[in-house]
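Morning!

As promised:
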Amino acid sequence: MSEIFFKDEELMRKFCDGDEHAFQALYQRHEKPLYRYVRRVLGSTLVAQVDEVFQDAWMRLVDARGGWQERENASFKTWLYTLAHHRAVDILRKSGRESSMDEGWKDDGATEYTGTAPWQLWPASSAEQPEQKVFWHSAGKQLLHCLDGLPVAQRAAFLLQHDDGLSLEEIAQVLNAEFEMVKSRLRYALTKLRACMGAYLHPLFQTE
Amino acid sequence: MSLPDKHLQQALQHAPDRELAPNEITRKAVLDHAAMALLQRKSRWLQRCHHILTLEYWHIPRWQLAGMGSTIAILLVVAVFWDEHVAELRTGKFNGEPIQVASAPTESLQQNADGLAGRAKDEKTQPVSKPMRVENPTNSRIIAANESSDNSSVQNKAALNTKSTELGLERNETQQTTAPVIITADKFVVASAPEAVVDQNVGSSIDASVGLKQRLPSVGVDAPAPTDKAVAVNNIAERSDRLGNAEVDKDISAKKLALTSENRSEAKVKIKKDVSSTLGTIVNSNMAQNNAMKSGVALANKDIQAGILRILTHGKPTVTSVPLIDAVTGYRIQIIEGSDVSTLLPDEVEAYNQVMQDYYARSSRLN
């Protein structure tokens, strides 16, 4: 039976029981999302460290699989992203680029965007016209640029929610933070990103 | 505010890094690490079984095991030969054939011998200076002397020749004999010298034995050479068939046993030599193993002092961009010597790794 029908947790259990193919299926499933998350959290300045962090996260997962067996009702994805996040934070600390984890907790001056938000005028993402594709590609590029300007904690919270689809509880678990703190970080992250994106994209729509 | 922003989410999905993936080396390193972890898990089971079978599970040092093994091997060899010897004597069989014990000289034989002795005296033949005797005829002992080995034997031969002339037997029948044999009811031995069975004090006994000798015309007769004892015995057997003499049959049996016991003694000496050489080999291999383990321990201690913490293994080298990590200690795994290793290398590596793991355990406790 193909491994694609199994949940992550079932595959991990099979791997713990000695099934190598189960691990390969898990790796295949989470390879790109995790790599993307690590790359975006580390930012454009630490691209060279992405592979190292990614590999360390998987190896730690393999080595600590005995601890996984003792857990009950644990989410594999949460565990994997926790390992990767902690390793990325280590790298950021060593490089001196890590902002305080509580930085996003206090109000750093970002304000809610008021008035007609420019993104409300954005075309639908499913649009197939070349101009719209170019628009979304530019938007994605700008978003990555904007993400680089966020503190690590806010950046991670935003990415875990918007790209990896984790719930607030799971994000709190990955970031080892309280639930309310995660909500606050998300709020600040969204505010900053909207401001950043709006400032960049607004002229485009003005011309239209 | 906790809901995801759909626009930003869509922008994120269209970001240029969407399809980025790790390079092939990283992917291979991760998958290899997982495969190796599973292999180590399997080998741990094998190691555990191996430890139980080799008594390492019970924490007995190897030098003690080597000593115990050597002692057990020696005891086994001794027990096997001891049991074999005792069993033969208890069952009265040797090599599957019953041990034939010579009976005491019959009364008629004794009388005949006495008569012959009297006649020899009367004819003033040369007296027997060292007569042969049967020490105790009642305990079924037969003594045959080698007449050609010393003076007493020569004198005995002269007497025998005289008597054989009287009896009309050929003289040369007594000139060649086999090795002297003493056979008792409980044990048989090969006499070292004819003097052991020669006694001057018993005249009647020597007469009886002389008579017996003369009744043994086949002893040494037609033997091609004194050393070819087996051929001589066969000749005796043929001659005894012709003559139909019961006494001759008994002596033939005794000589057969003597020959077999000689062969057996030689075989025992050879086996002892083989066993001693085998035991020597075992002791040497144990010493080499201990030296290899000591070397591994010394190297590990040296590395620990130098701050080099690693786990050694031997096998097919793998090419990875990142070092392999030991699952238990977290130390780097270093592969040495490829798959072609000497017989002592695994012991050395095992001792080395044991010291590293002990060091890791100590450091973990301290931390």
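The two ends of chain A are 53 Å apart (CA to CA).

Hope this helps with the figure draft.
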